[in-house]
Amino acid sequence: MELSSPFPLETVAIEKQTLHDQVANRIRDLIIEGHLAPGTRIDETTLVEQLGVSRTPFREALRTLAAEGLVIIRPSKGSVVRKLTAQDVFSMLELLSHLEKLAGQLVCERASDADIDGLLKLHEDMLKRYREGDRLPYYKLNQEFHSRVSELAGNESLREVQANIQARLKRIRFLGNSKPDYWASAVAEHEQMAAALKKRDGEALGRVMAQHLMNTWDRVKDNL
Amino acid sequence: MELSSPFPLETVAIEKQTLHDQVANRIRDLIIEGHLAPGTRIDETTLVEQLGVSRTPFREALRTLAAEGLVIIRPSKGSVVRKLTAQDVFSMLELLSHLEKLAGQLVCERASDADIDGLLKLHEDMLKRYREGDRLPYYKLNQEFHSRVSELAGNESLREVQANIQARLKRIRFLGNSKPDYWASAVAEHEQMAAALKKRDGEALGRVMAQHLMNTWDRVKDNL
DNA sequence: ATTCCTTATTTTGTATACAAAATATACTAT
DNA sequence: ATAGTATATTTTGTATACAAAATAAGGAAT
Is B18 in contact with A75 (Cβ distance < 8 A)? Predict the structure, then answer.
C-alpha cells in the first residue's frame, strides 16, 4: 500500500553534515561574528589545529567561503578574510535594496494570509525588543524578518541571493544600529512595512523596503 | 621618485592559476557546453584520470562549482550536475529580469559615452550575425552584450550576481534561440534596447530588458 | 520469486606525506 | 648601514594512503 505523505521527502530527510560543511559553517560564523576580523590572514596551521581537523576538509571549506565572497584566496599566498570597502558595501546595499523591493512586491502577491500574519507577528516581537532596548535579539529578529520576506516571495533564486548578501553584510549592519536615533528610524520604517503588509500593498511595501535599505547605507557608512 | 601609474596594480598583476582553479574552469565549461549533462553523476575516478590530476584539487574545484550552483554535492553519495527544473529556470529568469532592468537604468546614468558606443557597436555586430544566420557567434555576442551592460552599471555586486545566473542559464538559453521566429523577436527586442541606449533613456532600456528576459521564458520553457 | 541478511566491491571522506612556492634569516660586498 | 644574494624555514599546493560509508552481489529463508 502506498503512503501519501503530506510532506515532500526531501524536507524530512536528515541531512548529513560532512566535516568540510561543519568547518565552513564554523569559519563563516567566526567571520560574521567578528572573531576573524576583515583583512586577517587565515592561518591554516593554527586554525586547523584549533578545530581539530586535517587540512583537506579545511581547505575545501575555504573554497566554499571564497565562492560566497567571505574570504579571498590568493594563490600560494594564503587566504584572508575579505575586507569590504565602502564601495563594496554600497554596491551590496544598492543591489539588496532592489532585491527586497522586488521581494516586498512579490510577497504581497504570493504569500498566504497565514504567512503574512507570521511576518506581522515577527514585527510585533521586534517592537517589543525595541521598547525594551534589547539590541541583539532585535537584530536577530530583524534579519529573520528580511529573510522571511525573501523566502515568501516564492522565488528561490531571489532567496539565495538575498541570503548571501545579507550574510556578507551581517557584521556591518549590526554596527549600524548602534546609535539610538538610527535604531528609532529603522523601527519607524518597519512600522510602515507592517502597515503595507497588512494591506497587501506590494507597491508600498517594495518602496519602503528599498528606502529602508538605502537608509541603511546612511546608518552604516561611517563605520567603514 | 614616485611613479603614478594610470592603472591600479591589481589590474596588471598576472594571476596565477592553481590546479583547482583550472579544474573548476574546465568542469564548468564541460557543464555549460553540455558535455556533462544535467543529472549526470560526476564520477571522480574517471574524471580525475581524464584530467590527469589528483582527487584533492578536483574535490576543491567541485566545492566551488557547488557554491556556484552548477553541481549538487550529496554527502557520501557523490556529486551530480545540477538539473534545473522549470521552476528553477523561471525563478532565475524572473530575478534576472529585474536585475537587468536595474542594470539598464544604471547604465544610462553612469556609463561614459564611449562605453555606450561600445555597446551599440556590439549590437551592430549582433545584427550582422543575425542577418547571416550565424547562430553561435550571435549567441556569444548576445551574452557579451548582457554581461557588459551589467558591468557598466557600475555596481560590482550586481555584475557578480548577473554573471552567475547567466552562467547557470547558458545552456538552456542557447536552446531557446533554435526556432527562427524566436530569434527574430529577440533581435527586435535588442533593436529597442539599442534605441533606448542611444537616447540614454534608462527607464525605457530597463523596461525593454526586463521584458526581453520574461519573453525568454516563453522561448525556453518548452525545452524543459 | 521476493525479501532479508551477509559479505564483497566500489566510492567517498579524511589524514598524512611529499613537493613546490613564498617568506624569513643570515651573511657578504659595497 | 644598505643592497643584494644565498640558505633555511615556513607555508601552501598536490598526491597518495587509509578509513568509513554506500552500493552491489550473492545466497538463505520464506
Answer: yes
